[in-house]
Amino acid sequence: MKRQTMYFRMITSSLIRRRSRMLVALLAVAIGATILSGLVTIYYDIPRQMGEEFRSYGANLIFVPGGGDSALNADEVKKATGFIPAEDIVGIAPYRYETVKINEQPFMAAGTDLNEVKKTSPYWFVSGQWPAGSGSVLIGQEVVERIRLSPGDTFTLSGTDIGGKSFSHDFTVSGIVQTGGTEEAFIFMPLSDLEGLMGNSGVLDVVECSISATQQVLNDIAGQVGENVDDVTPRLVKRVTQSEGTVLTKLQALVYLVTVVVLLLTMICVATTMMAVVAERRREIGLKKALGAANKSIIKEFLGEGLLLGGLGGLLGVALGFAFAQTVSINVFARSISFQPLLIPATLIVSVAITGLACLLPVRSATDVDPAIVLRGE
User: Fold this and answer.
1) Using H for helix, E for strand and C for coil, what is the string for 327-350?
2) Phi, psi of 292 (to 5 degrees)
3) Where does the record place a coiled coil (predicted)?
């Protein structure tokens, strides 16, 4: 029989003979590995989860006219949005504002891409339906209170185009917007409809961008746009980006703290269990030394038992940790979490390392056993 096989059989049989104590140590390592792998999985997935959650609060980057211009050029906006990674874009909604009249009362019309508005402003509450095409509009709650319109009603919009020519066009109310903010004072229509009324196109007042990215990435995008596009000024929506950064930092700090505490408790539990095992096996250790066993072989035996426990506990922890992270993610964010394959070797290495450190003191105690004293029964 090879020495490695004999060594493995020796440490496994030792663990089996003391399975009640070793089970406690195994559970401690497994729980520690579970918390470690689960929290690390959450830690790496938090930015994505938090980004998706904060996107419900609206855009986090806007483009406004720069260089003394009073309006944005659609070509310049296209150039600016080119600096945003396509995979990070949630939605980009352009807006153009013009003054129009209903029954000779002035109102502000906003031409936009309503499909993109659904993505950049998911917090809008719409009574009725979103416009399905040309000729349909959303009207704000304040507008409704002034002119008493309901979904399905038709009204006439009038005004003067950029050439000074009067226009009049019928529109149908598709839905009513309620946000609790300034949006309730606007009439929202497809950008193409407003451009048709005003007689020109390619002119914008502001562009709202909802981007799933960290504050640092947003700063980089804003910097690139500011340096390379003269007629566009990027501005971060600080109430969103700063809140997201603050919450993310605190959550990640909490993950660090809990992980460190759990690993320390795991180390203490394993060390206590191994000390009890050494105390039980004092006569066995003394007998081995009396028969000529060197301290090196005693150390290898106890470390082997500890490292095997660490490996088994780490494997359990990887599976249970992902289940733990998935449960937390679904209950907190209502979204599933992605598995990180690198967690398997990382969790195993940390579990084995923690168990090895926890065994150092018990192993030292085992090497200090005096065979003459122990075999006399003292």
Assistant:
1) HHHHHHHCCCCCCCCCHHHHHHHH
2) 110, 5
3) none
pLDDT given for residue 372 in this prediction: 66
Tell me: do 348 and 273 sit in the same domain.
yes
pLDDT 10s digits, 239-253: 655 666 676 777 778
DSSP string, 221-233: HHHHHHHH-TTEE
Do 370 and 256 lie in one domain? The reply is yes
Q: Which of 236, 260, 287 is the last residue of a domain?
A: 236
- Split into its structural domains, the chain has a count of 2
Report which of 156, 157, 189, 196 is spatially closest to residue 175, judged by C-alpha positions: 189
Nearest CA among 233, 235, 237 for reference residue 72: 233
- Give tens-digit pLDDT for 47-84: 666 666 666 677 888 999 986 667 898 889 999 999 99
Residue 273: pLDDT band with limits 50, 70, 90: confident
Looking at the structure, do residues 98 and 223 belong to the same domain, yes or no? Answer: yes
HEC string for 93-104: EEEEEEEEEECC
Examine the fold and report which residue of 212, 236, 260 is the final residue of a domain before the chain moves on: 236
Give the other-Cβ count within 10 Å of 368's Cβ.
10
Dump pLDDT digits (tens) for 175-215.
999 988 889 999 999 999 999 999 888 899 999 999 887 77
Residues 135 and 162 in one domain: yes
Instruction: State the residue range of the domain holding 45.
Output: 3-53+245-375
Contact criterion met (CB below 8 Å) for 298 and 366: yes
CA–CA dist 206, 69 (Å, integer): 12
pTM above threshold 0.90: no
Distance CA 59, CA 52 (A): 12
Q: Could you give the dihedral angle defined by the CA atoms of residues 238, 243, 246 and 251, in that order, rounded to the nearest 10 degrees? A: -150
Q: Averaged over 30-48, what is the pLDDT?
A: 80
Q: Say whether both 78 and 213 belong to one domain.
A: yes
